[in-house]
Design brief:
- The chain has helices spanning 4-23, 25-44, 48-54, 58-72, 75-83, 86-92, 99-131, 138-165, 174-181, 190-204, 208-228, 235-268, 275-290, 292-304, 310-328, 334-352.
- It is an all-alpha fold.
- Helix 1 (4-23) packs across helix 7 (99-131) and helix 7 packs antiparallel against helix 8.
- The longest helix is centred in the last third of the chain and has 34 residues, at 235-268.
- The protein starts with a helix and ends in a 5-residue tail after the last helix.
- It comes from Telluria antibiotica.
Length: 357
């Protein structure tokens, strides 16, 4: 019989997943309508990295599989604040929950979160085992994929144990809070207000900053695999993944900026500052913060000799232009903005797939 603590953690995780799915429902509908065939193709490549790693000699295969398994658990870092919210963690911490129970409950939640990945791996394995390419070693491919998934599950469990078992942050004294709100030496200037009102909330009040860093790193990694990866990795798949992650980075940064701007406008209505100038400065700093991702893509493509021909020039222009377009356009509706995101992804995928033709 399941322990009440485990049932509560699972119920909390299901509620968080359902809430996230409801928020992304509009985006998912547009993505399935526009990118349906591409998404099916990406599912077919879900287990490809693990299968390619398993085909290597054993001394190289094991480290590659370990790296793949650890990397696939990183999304749990982004989901953890939803699965174990701070206020629930503060309430759960004083309870006399044994360490073993905490591990078992976290393992069950990790299994719930990793279930879609397991299904994608199973579908991908079935497709590749049916096709049987020359490089595929069936037994090692299955074993390598299972090993990678088990390592992902174990890492996700460890991350959830760490998130649920930490004590709540110590409350600051009123004197410290007053000193943080009203510094002893007030400073004026646009950068100071941007740092206080836009930069710090990315890291202190939400996981938006972590998500943007993860997406930026994923963009650079996907671009490197696309441009300089092994010949067995399809170029089209690299173009699709790089394009999607690049656009999602711009969308995530734009969403965080607009959400914070809506909060700041209400607060700044009574302040003696130019709110419009503050908004322009915040947009400019957001664009500057997003510039390293397309810059890294440009450098990697230049090193690989990819930027030649009309398609490559159009791709590069779109890669640099997607962030300004999302950031500087009117808000529209949620569906309108997601349609713009989907259109940008389709264009980038179309031009990126022609890069090596």
């Amino acid at each position: 019989m399941t322990h009440p603590y485990t049932r509560f953690r699972l119920l909390l995780a299901r509620h968080a997943v359902a809430e996230l799915a409801a928020r992304l429902r509009g985006a998912a509908e547009i993505a399935m309508f526009v990118l349906g065939p591409l998404i099916v193709g990406l599912i077919a490549f879900a287990a490809l990295p693990a299968m390619l790693a398993a085909a290597e000699p054993l001394p190289l295969a094991l480290p590659l599989l370990c790296l793949h398994g650890i990397a696939m658990s990183l999304p749990v870092v982004l989901l953890r604040p939803r699965v174990v919210p701070a206020h629930v963690r503060a309430w759960l911490h004083p309870l006399p929950v044994p360490q073993g129970m905490l591990v078992r409950a976290s393992s069950a939640v990790a299994a719930l979160l990793a279930a879609p990945l397991a299904l994608a791996y199973a579908a991908s394995l079935a497709i590749w085992l049916y096709q049987r390419p020359d490089w595929l070693l069936p037994a090692r491919a299955i074993a390598g994929t299972v090993l990678s998934f088990l390592l992902t599950w174990a890492c996700a469990t460890a991350l959830l144990v760490h998130g649920a078992g930490l004590p709540p942050r110590a409350r600051r004294t009123p004197q410290e809070a007053a000193a943080d709100t009203h510094p002893a030496t007030p400073r004026a200037g646009g950068f100071y207000f941007w740092h206080r009102l836009f930069w710090l909330p990315l890291w202190r009040r939400s996981s938006a900053g972590v998500r943007q860093c993860a997406l930026a790193a994923a963009t650079v990694g996907a671009a490197a695999l696309w441009m300089m990866g092994p010949q067995s990795l399809p170029r089209v798949a690299g173009a699709i993944v790089t394009s999607i992650v690049l656009v999602m980075l711009a969308y995530e940064a734009d969403l965080a900026l607009r959400t914070q701007l809506a909060r700041v406008r209400v607060l700044a209505a009574a302040w003696p500052i130019d709110a419009a100038a503050l908004a322009r400065r915040a947009r400019a700093m957001t664009l500057l913060a997003m510039a390293p991702a397309p810059a890294a893509l440009t450098v990697i493509g230049t090193a690989a000799g990819a930027w030649h021909g009309t398609a490559s020039h159009l791709y590069l222009a779109l890669a640099w232009g997607v962030a300004p377009v999302l950031t500087l356009t009117p808000p529209f509706t949620t569906r309108g903005r997601m349609a713009l995101v989907a259109f940008a992804i389709v264009l980038l995928c179309a031009f990126g797939s022609k890069l090596w033709d």
